[in-house]
TrEMBL record:
InterPro entries: HARBI1-like, HARBI1_dom. Belongs to the HARBI1 family. It comes from Parnassius mnemosyne. Residues 60-212 form the DDE Tnp4 domain. This is DDE Tnp4 domain-containing protein. Pfam families: DDE_Tnp_4 (PF13359). It is found in: Nucleus. GO terms for molecular function: hydrolase activity; metal ion binding; nuclease activity. Keywords: Hydrolase, Metal-binding, Nuclease, Nucleus.
Length: 267
């Protein structure tokens, strides 16, 4: 086709492609959390081979995708930095593949709440006789299956060395966001999706499907520049330490202490 494409044509094509990529069978095929022990072991082994941290099945975090002011329930999407957004939760593996994504919550929702409502949390809690960890920042509550940093750890102590390794591995999710938003720049927090929240969420999911297709095909994508990374960090709301029930927190501390002791024995 010669000449510029009409806006109506672009909008129609975007809607058709987004709808196709959000079909349930497409999402199940391309964004899939490991469902059995063999699949989990494969991911664990890749994390261990790269970083030396055992039993990790993914890294988790949320990233903000700006949207225009919604016409309904604006308060759900307005964040503390005074713009509207989708707070998008992503879990990735060591290859930057997205294994789970939730783009249904607004910017007023805390990361920890999104995780509490996530079906993957129930899935991990239901596993028997298997050690599995997700790695999260201090915005998540420490649990048997959620390893977070140790607060106020002394450098070069066992806890400090654990924190260094945990952060190094957790950078995988930051790299995933960088590659995802480098490819699909409409997701950058400095920009805005000019769609209602439901449509914006579908666009985010579509971009995640395409991201995974590119990763599996070995197609390298442009990562964000340092200036763009800084812009992203500026627009993201700093995490707040998650509240935690005493019993679950104690179980998480025992699991984390066991992991720290094992890392020290293997030094």
């Amino acid at each position: 086709m010669d000449g510029p494409m009409a806006q109506q044509t672009v909008s129609r094509c975007l809607q058709e492609v987004t709808t196709a990529l959000n079909a349930p069978h497409i999402l199940r095929k391309h964004i899939r959390f490991p469902q059995n022990r063999n699949e989990r072991n494969l991911i664990k082994q890749k994390f261990y081979d790269k970083y030396g941290l055992p039993a990790v099945v993914g890294c988790i975090d949320c990233s903000h995708v700006a949207i225009v002011r919604p016409s309904e329930h604006e308060e759900r999407y307005f964040n503390r930095k005074h713009f509207h957004l989708i707070n998008t939760q992503v879990i990735c593996d060591s290859d930057l593949l997205i294994t789970n994504v939730d783009a249904s919550y607004g910017g007023a929702t805390h990361d920890a709440y999104i995780w509490r409502e996530c079906e993957i949390r129930n899935h991990l809690e239901g596993l028997q006789d298997e050690t599995v960890y997700l790695l999260g920042d201090s915005g998540y509550a420490l649990r048997e299956h959620m390893m977070t940093p140790v607060d106020n750890a002394v450098e070069n102590s066992p806890e400090g060395r654990y924190n260094y390794l945990q952060k190094r591995v957790r950078c995988t999710i930051e790299r995933t966001f960088g590659v995802l938003k480098g490819r699909w720049r409409c997701l950058l927090a400095a920009r805005e999706l000019h769609y209602c929240p439901e449509t914006a969420g579908k666009i985010i999911l579509a971009c995640c499907v395409l991201h995974n297709m590119c990763i599996r095909a070995g197609i390298e994508g442009p990562e964000l520049t340092e200036e763009e990374h800084q812009s992203e960090r500026t627009r993201q709301v700093p995490f707040e330490t998650a509240a935690s029930s005493t019993q679950a927190l104690q179980a998480g501390r025992r699991a984390r202490n066991s992991l720290i002791q094992m890392l020290e024995r293997n030094r």
